[in-house]
From TrEMBL:
Gene that this sequence comes from: purN
UniProt-listed InterPro entries: Formyl_transf_N (IPR002376), Formyl_transf_N_sf (IPR036477), GART (IPR004607)
Matches recorded under CDD domains: FMT_core_GART
Annotated source species: Bordetella flabilis
Protein name: Phosphoribosylglycinamide formyltransferase
Residues binding (6R)-10-formyltetrahydrofolate, per UniProt: 69, 111
Keywords: Purine biosynthesis, Transferase
Length: 224
């Protein structure tokens, strides 16, 4: 890994709201990093236009153009490797990646998942949370491993499940939290502060608070 500025490639599939949060934080907070490319699994992803207008190189590798998951992953890897990234950041990238792809970027592939892992891996996490009656929900930034929605946890954000919540209202609260947690975690990566311990747990130099907790908008501690 480079010892100077970290090179980041961000993968998206849709509007890219987390990608936008990362780019804006990187620039406004002067991270020692550059977002070198935004790559989408869909050519019509709205996030591509935003990234292009922000001066970031973009590309799409459309999964439907490939006969197999392995062929798609190989093409995606070729596009990623053109930019020689230190980290590949999954920001709403809605494709299940093969073990070969994950292992290619081992300890450099980072995802955000909309639940407090290991609870609710996979899709429809907010509906799962409401169906089980949990009182807390949230998001997790983690290193990607071949096992879907598992891997060493870098940071988590916790929000309450409120009376009358729907999947959409809960998703909105979680997304607000994602826009806090993800930039913080990726900044630690950019600063070279994140290490995987021998037991595969994450250590962050300086021991920052790695659990982000929601507060109501009218609370004096609200800082979303």
């Amino acid at each position: 890994m480079s010892s100077g500025r970290r090179r980041l490639v961000i993968l998206i599939s849709g509007r890219g709201s987390n990608m936008r949060a990362l780019v804006q934080a990187c620039r406004q907070e002067n991270w020692p990093a550059d977002v070198c490319a935004v790559i989408s699994s869909r050519p019509d992803a709205p996030g591509l236009q935003w990234a292009s207008e922000a001066g970031i190189p973009t590309a799409s590798v459309y999964h439907r153009d490939f006969a197999s998951r392995e062929a798609f992953d190989a093409a995606l890897a070729r596009e990623i490797d053109r930019h020689a990234p230190d980290y590949v950041i999954l920001a709403g990238f809605m494709r299940v990646l093969t073990a070969g792809f994950v292992n290619r970027y081992a300890e450099r592939l980072v995802n955000i998942h909309p639940s407090l892992l290991p609870a609710f891996p996979g899709l429809h996490t907010h509906a799962q949370a409401l169906a089980t009656g949990v009182q807390a929900h949230g998001c997790t930034v983690h290193f990607v491993t071949p096992l879907l929605d598992h891997g060493p946890i870098v940071a988590q954000g916790c929000v309450p499940v409120l009376p009358g919540d729907t999947p959409d209202s809960l998703a909105g609260r979680v997304l607000d939290m994602e826009h806090r947690v993800f930039p913080a975690a990726v900044r630690w990566l950019a600063e070279g502060r994140v290490r995987l311990a021998p037991d595969h747990r994450v250590d962050v130099q300086g021991n920052p608070q790695r659990l982000f907790v929601w507060s109501a908008p009218d609370s004096p501690n609200h800082n979303e």
